[in-house]
Amino acid sequence: MNEAQDVQSVGIHFPPGIPDKVTAEVSRIAQMFMVDGESLRKITDHFVKELERGLSDQDSDISMNVTWATKYPTGYETGQYLTVDMGGTNLRVCNVVLTDEKGGYEITQSKFKLPKGLKTGTADELWAYIADRVADFLRDHNLDQGDEKLPLAFTFSYPITQDKIRHGVLQRWTKGFDIEGVEGHDVVAQLEAAFEERDVGVRIVALVNDTTGTLIASAYKDPEIKIGSIFGTGCNSAYMEKCGRVPKIADYKLPGDQNVAINTEYGAFDNSHKALPRCQFDLEVDRTSPRPGQQTYEKMVAGLYVGEIARLVLIHLHDTVGFLEGADLTRLRRLNSMESSCVSKMEEDGADTGSVMSETKAILSEQFGIEPTLQELRVCCLLGEIVCTRAARLYACGIAAICKKEGLKKGRVGVDGSTFEKLFRFKSRAAAALREILEWPDDEEDLVTFVQAEDGSGIGAALIAALSSEG
Ligand code: BGC
């Protein structure tokens, strides 16, 4: 059996002792989450059209942001750069020295957990927090150079409109952020104002998306890398395009064969609801999110949402067919209380048919106060498999769409993000789906493969700063 296809192709095997009404409802839900090869190909074809529309001036759900990162690194970039990465959970500050040796670098870093409340606080609190952590970092690492300001590359992984590399207007918040006063404004100017107020000795020289950083950092090590992708809290990809194929920047009169990295922002794919098979649980995830109607694709696949989808399915089964009968679901009913890693663990735990599912039992007991029977644990495991399989298969559509649009027959995709590493069988499932979509012959090895990316927001951002200072 192809392990990547599991519930998709071989159907569900319920353990004995599960009431019929529960098995019937789980089977119905499995059907809802099933996306066969034909559907994947249709979704991808629509995806390709949207990528193309995004490069033109036509309306598209996908904004295809021009990043102004216009070169691949040669390995001979040099210089010292501070980098700041404002991720969904952490803030990472690095001092990156690109050394004279080909491909060489040294890196020192500090990570800070973003305080609770910052994601929905005020703009002043956000910029002050970042500026203070950078000031701490300079002090702790003796990097303050008096009047000479250190160049800083800022990885800000949200959709932004850029007309140059050190500028970017936030189009909209994603990944559960909801901070007033930033959308529609240049985030570089806002952060620089906070640096100035505190007299922090840095100047922002590049504004970078995590996908672009991943593309450049990965290509630095491996010239076969054609796409930089993130599969973590959010989901998105970047690739190198020729300026001549980006009608919306025709006014800049750039040479047609000049490269420019495009941050697709394809998490917003299908916001107009024409292609993706959304089910009742997807609608509910969207309804309770801070930005309903946005990031439709991301909400069906990315790490921030996989746990939430599984949580809603569990509650639905309890409320409609008495699954987990008698359990107190108060804690499970809390919005976003289940992390994607938890769903993945459930599935992994049950993958061995002889397992007593002790990890899943511990998670449900400790985090939610639920004490399921072994049979119920097996159903939880099946649900994990159903939700995670769909996520991996739909994730492959975005990558396949870039390959089809670019006529890319062979290459590697550098993928970063906590969920990519942690989600059980994610990589093999995504690879199997890519094969189905791109219809490679059975006797052919995978032509486009997923590999673990290099450090995009540290090394990648520093490289982009170095490359853009070359003019
Ligand atoms: C953001 C992208 C980012 C992705 C992965 C999405 O929510 O809009 O800019 O690349 O998450 O972090």
TrEMBL record:
Residue ranges of every copy of the Hexokinase C-terminal domain listed in the record: 226-467
SUPFAM superfamilies per UniProt: Actin-like ATPase domain
Name of the top EC class for this enzyme: transferase
GO biological process: glucose metabolic process; glycolytic process; intracellular glucose homeostasis; mannose metabolic process
Pathway membership, UniProt: Carbohydrate degradation; glycolysis; D-glyceraldehyde 3-phosphate and glycerone phosphate from D-glucose: step 1/4; Carbohydrate metabolism; hexose metabolism
Pfam family of the protein (one): Hexokinase_2
GO cellular component: cytosol; mitochondrion
UniProtKB keywords: ATP-binding, Glycolysis, Kinase, Nucleotide-binding, Transferase
Reaction it catalyzes: D-fructose + ATP = D-fructose 6-phosphate + ADP + H(+); a D-hexose + ATP = a D-hexose 6-phosphate + ADP + H(+)
EC number(s) per entry: 2.7.1.-
InterPro entries assigned: ATPase_NBD, Hexokinase, Hexokinase_C, Hexokinase_N
Keyword check for Ribonucleoprotein: no
Ranges where the Hexokinase N-terminal domain occurs: 26-220
GO molecular function: ATP binding; D-glucose binding; fructokinase activity; glucokinase activity; mannokinase activity
Family to which the UniProt record says this protein belongs: Belongs to the hexokinase family.
Protein's name in the database: Phosphotransferase
Organism of provenance: Aspergillus ellipticus CBS 707.79
